[in-house]
# Entry
Amino acid sequence: MRYEILGPLRVLSGERRVQLSAPKMTVLLAALLARRGQVVASDLLVSEIWPDEPPRRATATLQVYVSQLRKVLTCPLRPECPILTRPPGYLLNVDAEAVDLHRFESGVAAGRADARAGRHLPAAERFTEALAVWRGPALAGLRDGPVVDAFVTRLEESRLECIEMMMEVGLLGGRHRELTGQLFELTLEHPLREAFYRQLMLALYRSERQADALRVYQRARQILADELGLEPGRPLREIQRAILADDDRFELSSTG
# Structure
């Protein structure tokens, strides 16, 4: 069995997609995948499946869903069910390699290694390949409960960090003109993430578009003030001052 969580939840047996018959059974599997290899208490699973108001016999109903899910995940190639009963709840015993998250995390680790070694363009390729594993928002439509919501929040942060690193090594590799459009879009999609403003300013500055870079700073400053009552952080302020002073320390030759 293979499990895909970087997008809508999918379970694959070979090339065949395994159908999960009930929405609440899908939520149960998502919660167990979020805590893969760990015991998830029954009361926490009840809160995950019924976040508003559990039924009177919620624990008994949970046991029914577990039984149904065990039947779905047990196949001739794997006669032992991966869902184990472990007080005070249940544990999903599947290898990391069976989940698409492993491919994403392995790609990110390879990209980091290339980046540390100064191999900027190969690092950018590794990060790009890692991001290609994502099919959409992680566990889309299943994050109403605390377990999946916290897990997806962590995954989304990892994805954004990967994008930041991909942009960073791309800039170090001299791809500033190529990345400008993507960085514009990223600042619009994530208006409170200062790293994307800094990277966009750097790309514009290296493309001889100092005035546009300064306008980006002013936009970032206005948004941060309006939303959070904050001034831009030091990295943004430093690149703004460097542009105003015609300082060459952010030129490509001095950074990559």
User: Anything to note?
Assistant: The mean pLDDT is 93. Strands lie at 2-4, 10-13, 16-18, 39-41, 83-86, 89-92.
